[in-house]
Design goal:
It is built from 1 helix and 5 strands, in the order E-E-H-E-E-E. It is of the alpha+beta class. It has a single domain, classed as Ubiquitin-like (UB roll). A hairpin with a 5-residue loop joins strand 3 and strand 4.
């Protein structure tokens, strides 16, 4: 099934959770997938959703990715 995460299309399996869509997005962007547990995830209306929530087809998800700190 297809979903949009931060306006980017990702494909996940039927019965997937929001976590799987976020992990697909992070991998697609070449980011560390361990970030997933520290992210805040929102639905298309701006409501915070849990990573364990079921993802349904054509969902639009937004995640806030923290900026890396300069070392």
């Amino acid at each position: 099934m297809k979903l949009k995460v931060n306006r980017k299309n990702v494909t996940v399996f039927e019965g997937a959770e929001v976590r799987h869509a976020v992990l697909s997005y992070l991998a697609l962007k070449g980011m560390d997938v361990r970030l997933a547990d520290s992210l805040t995830v929102y639905d298309r209306w701006g409501h915070e959703i849990d990573l364990g929530a079921p993802a349904s087809q054509f969902d639009m998800i937004k995640i806030n990715i923290p900026k890396p700190k300069d070392q």
